[in-house]
Amino acid sequence: MTAESTVPSPGGQPREYGFSPVSVIPPRGADEGFRFPAGQRPPSARHFVRHLARHSVSRGAPLPLLLADGGAALLAGLALTEVRPHAPLVAAMVLAVLTLSAHAGLYRPAPVPAVLDELPVVCARIAVTWCALAALVAALVPDTALSARTLAAGCVLQSAVSCAGRAAVYWWLRRALVLRPSAALVIGPAATGRRVAAALMRHPRYGLRPVGVVADQAAGSDGLPVLTTGEEVQRALIQNSVRAVLVVEPRREHGPLLRALAEAGCTLWQLDADSPSHTADSPSHKAGSSRLAGFSCERIDVSRRHGNLAKRLLDIVVSGTLLLLVSPLLLMCAAALRLSDGPGVVFRQERIGKDGRPFTLLKFRTHRPVDAHEAATRWSVADEREMGRFCHFLRRFSLDELLQLWNVLRGDMSLVGPRPERPYFVGKFSQTYPGYAARHRMRTGITGLAQIHGLRGDTSIEDRCRFDNAYIDNWSLWQDICILLRTAAALVRPTGS
């Protein structure tokens, strides 16, 4: 798990993907990430408040769907005489249905939603809620336990009312999409963006009116205008009141831009404009995917605020607990390293963290660089001949990494994430390997998906980029727990770091 020891293959030939390379190392004092130009601000969420009442239903706002599901649950609960004495249980049922539906993404509908597409998911959650309600009533008030007939009637009634309410909301939504289409931007290569825009114009029922293509390079004058600068994107947002953004190439290449557009009140969609929809890698085979003018698409969420909070809580609890438990071991390692290898027990080095921000990484020193330049630009390997025996021991069992728990507790790092690297190599690899800069969308970590798949030591930087970005794109708290468990299992059979 040591970044110095993860010798990539710097001489390997990266593939050419056609994107312009992106560096995450900004000048000192500069703001990281995409910024709209100074002057008039882009339309923010506040800018659209005056349109909220008129467009709340027509733009798929969750309130009408929440009312439909909540009203159906309340009606079904109160319609059954056996449940009336238990008003708190009815309220619990309403809350449970809304929570399960929100977790399934039922309040973030597809571009052109249809109630039949959601019917199995809606009914399944209603059935689960009623079964849980029946078990709770039987446990708390056995005399009024729900019969099988009542349970079935409740499920059927609530499902029918909920689906009818959703059908009405979606009918109004589809009607509004045609009458009041949203202005949209397409992000990606100019030719592909114009092809997608033309398809949307041929299908007005999707309610999207493309007004421009955001690309790295300008194209011919035919078709939609191609926007290549922040000023042009800002002008398009303001003049057209853009409400939707369609991304037709890997979205990790446009992270800062997408975050800025989301903050401006835009809904983001990822489109697969090239791969056939029947292939296993297409978004149509992913949960939450949909169709847009025949293209597979899925909604993009760039905020992940709740996920970030859960991840940070896990980091604090685990790193704080481990620091307390291993503090005697840390003192023993420090004392042994001092006696065997002289002063200078702790090794400090600048690394690049989330959004390209530098931080000071802490480790037990296992070798002594000749000077600061060598420390910043030389790849060190785990079996260096000048390394002492005790230093070899620390590396073999990854004990030199334990001090990074303090970096995790401080918030510089996370327990799980892409491994941090020095500024020199981050700048170099960001220019060489597509997707390397995108690894810095999340806090760097002590271990990660790449490490548990053997991408340590003399392995490919390109492969590591792919695993790190896959981890970020599909992040979940359970995935973090699994990676930590697999890392702990790997430490039982150490192979060095």
From TrEMBL:
Tell me where in or outside the cell this protein is found: Membrane
Q: Name one GO cellular component term.
A: membrane
Signal peptide segment: none
Keywords assigned by UniProt, alphabetized: Membrane, Transferase, Transmembrane, Transmembrane helix
Q: Where is the Bacterial sugar transferase domain?
A: 311-492
Question: Is the keyword Transmembrane helix assigned to this protein?
Answer: yes
- Please, which domain of life does this record's source organism belong to? Bacteria
Region span, Disordered: 1-22
Q: How does it sit in the membrane?
A: Multi-pass membrane protein
InterPro entries reported in the protein's UniProt record: Bact_transf, EPS_sugar_tfrase
Give GO terms: molecular function aspect only: phosphotransferase activity, for other substituted phosphate groups
Instruction: Identify the main location.
Output: membrane
Question: Do you know which NCBIfam families this protein is assigned to?
Answer: EPS_sugtrans
The UniProt similarity line reads:
Belongs to the bacterial sugar transferase family.
Stated name of the protein:
Transferase
